[in-house]
Amino acid sequence: MLSRLITMICAVLLLSAPAMAGAREKIEALAPSGLVLVLDKDGNELIAQNAGKPFVPASVAKVVTAWLAMEVLGGGYRFETRFYLDKDRVLYVRGGGDPFLVSEELALLAPKLLAATGKEPFAGIVVDGSYYPADLRIPGIEGTGEAYDALNSAFAVNFNTIHAVRNGKTVRSAEKQTPITPLAISQFRARGPNGRGRISLAQEDPSVSVRYAGELLAAFVEQAGGSVEGGISTGSVPAGLKPVYVHRQSRSLSEILRQLLLGSNNYIANQVFLEIGAHGMGGPVSLDKSRLVANAFLAKHGLADAIHLVEGSGISRDNRFTARGLAGVLDLFAPHAGLMRKTKSGSRFKTGTFSGVRTLTGYAKTAKHGDVRFVISLGGGTGTLRYRLLHAIEREL
């Protein structure tokens, strides 16, 4: 009986060896200097080409951020924004770092706010953004008007960007769901292109984005039947004032992470990453707190030396991963693989791209080995090569 079992095992190994050899040869021919690591469900290395070299992950770092968020916050977590009203009907808004406070969410929020406060005019709106320090800066994000360089903020709308259409000095909203505001017009006149475009809010003055969020909130309050008679300003919620309404984001963290992994939004990624630290260590947010919490969870799984994360989106070139470290995170994140983009063959994946970096990671569906974890890192070139490598893994293993 034992001899028959040994014979069967040897037969399986002999059958699988040519397939793995074929896959290795194809991958080496396509990308001889590329990093490719493929592990089966038991952690056995099926392919390990240049796998010992640390690499810059680019946006595949978002997979690590998503895993940390599920570990620390949980899939059912919902970001909150708190509203206070003083005796003079001044409305105070305390931002809680909600990454998905988009126009559609404000349209849900405004009627609930008025139901809690009444429709008498507000004397003004004061936005408290102190949950995020004014000097907060994310490594790798430069002070530009590019939408992907949007400033992270305790209270920001539409990913801290303005989407508009400019014709000379005339500016109108590019979205039917988003009213245009005076600050949006002035910002887009100053920095927006002619025609349709999207700009981030200025990083030089974080209060600009907070005030714009207040203006857009006021516009939705008016659409819901309320009004704001005074101005929009920044400040602190007075001590002792109790919330009159707490808005919980309509999307759970799981849905936000799905959108994060599909759209690869840097702003969302770092809002989530910052919340990981503040949830574990208390507010206000800071990158140091998030790194400490992240390293503690990585160390728990023996991955602290393999995953060096300085921010949560992958925009910084100071992020450094090892292929085996990222494969370890993929193993832990496997129950949530359905949040990732899917190929026609059913593989789940996340890409990372910037100058000189092309990465791809996820879970490939193979005929002989089932679902396998893979990590691909290439030193630039076109983005299509990484997909050809993935297809080789799917077909040949």
Task: Note the topology.
Layout: H1 2-30, E1 35-39, E2 45-49, H2 61-72, E3 80-85, E4 90-94, H3 103-117, E5 124-128, E6 161-167, E7 170-173, H4 182-191, E8 195-200, H5 206-223, E9 232-234, E10 243-248, H6 253-263, H7 266-281, H8 287-300, E11 307-308, E12 320-321, H9 323-333, E13 341-342, E14 348-354, E15 357-366, E16 370-378, H10 384-396
Parallel strand pairs: 4-5, 5-9
Antiparallel strand pairs: 1-2, 1-16, 3-4, 3-10, 6-7, 6-8, 11-12, 13-14, 14-15, 15-16
Explain the overall architecture.
This protein is of the alpha+beta class. It has 2 domains: 21-74 and 258-396, DD-peptidase/beta-lactamase superfamily (Beta-lactamase); 80-251, D-Ala-D-Ala carboxypeptidase C, peptidase S13 (D-tyrosyl-trna(Tyr) Deacylase, Chain: A), CATH 3.50.80.20. Helix content is 38%, strand content 21%. The chain has 10 helices and 16 strands. The strands form 4 sheets. The protein has a 6-stranded antiparallel β-sheet with strand order 2-1-16-15-14-13, with helices on both faces. A 5-stranded mixed β-sheet has the order 9-5-4-3-10, covered by helices on one side. Strands 7-6-8 form a 3-stranded antiparallel β-sheet. Strand 1 (35-39) and strand 2 (45-49) form a beta hairpin. The longest helix has 29 residues, at 2-30.
